[in-house]
Design goal:
By secondary structure, the protein is mainly beta. It has one helix and twelve strands; from the N terminus they run E-E-E-E-H-E-E-E-E-E-E-E-E. About 10% of the residues lie in helices and about 35% in strands.
Amino acid sequence: MNFNPNFQVGQKIDSLNGVFVYFNGGVGNVEGRQLSPDGYNIGLKYQCVEFVKRYYYEALNHKMPDSYGHAKDFFDSTIADGQLNKTRNLIQFTNGSKSKPKVNDLLVYAPTLLNKYGHVSIISKVTEKDIEIIQQNPGPFGDSRETYKLEFAHGTWHIINDGILGWLRQQE
């Protein structure tokens, strides 16, 4: 269901490095499964997971070993800061990491009372004081881009948002 008459489900609303963000209407709307030409599961069309996996596939040539799961499943709390998350084949950092977030990092948000699946986005810009993210499916009236404060204190970097679990990064 689409509550925002300014956009249509599937309409291109933003992009990062040539990878488009599509409008999804209601947060729970699903338009079928998106597969790559070689059969890789990218995800449910127009959901947040589908965007970040499509971005990693198209812009960074990365396929995740486990191509399924909700947004919250991208972050494994048993993995130490800076270690490999094998199910995603990405290095995982906790929010409060010695490693500063970088452009192209995948940001993972915890589930909430109103969204039990969590959320994921891509970091599109980093300065000394904030980060900008790009996201798909923030809600019918949400923005595809948001900015969060970034702090360095006691040797660790914190993105100021209680819902952020951490970030994942392609190995260099």
